[in-house]
Specification:
mainly alpha, 127 residues
Length: 127
């Protein structure tokens, strides 16, 4: 494995972590704002609440940084290897959502998470 590929995996992983963090922050923001209804009358009030909600703003920042980091990694790793790595975000989010938000992780989700980890490992080994 070349030095560029090794550093590429670091950027890809950082992008995945930032993307997962963005999702968690957005969820925390929507928990604060409440359920969002898609109705014309609600758009301005909801947008205003989100515009000043710290978790939402931090989540958007994480998305922006994750895009830049992802592009750096993508310039060094084949997309057929890099893209499956995004599924690690689900693994991370499931664990953190269980811990922070009390979301349930039953046997079927655990089996799915195991399958994801196995699949990502196989893809990474093929690089």
């Amino acid at each position: 494995m070349t030095q560029a590929m090794n550093s590429g995996f670091g950027f890809i992983f950082a992008g995945v972590v930032l993307n997962a963090t963005a999702q968690l922050l957005l969820k925390a923001g929507t928990n604060t704002v409440g359920e969002i209804q898609l109705a014309t009358a609600n758009l301005a009030p909801v947008a205003t609440r989100l515009a000043f909600e710290p978790h939402f703003l931090a989540g958007m920042l994480c998305y922006g940084v994750s895009l830049v980091v992802w592009l750096v990694g993508l310039s060094r790793i084949e997309v057929s290897v890099a893209y499956p790595m995004l599924s690690l975000g689900y693994v991370l989010n499931a664990a953190v959502a269980w811990y922070w938000f009390g979301e349930a992780i039953g046997p079927m989700r655990i089996a799915g998470i195991g399958a994801i980890i196995l699949g990502v490992w196989l893809v990474a080994r093929s690089a």
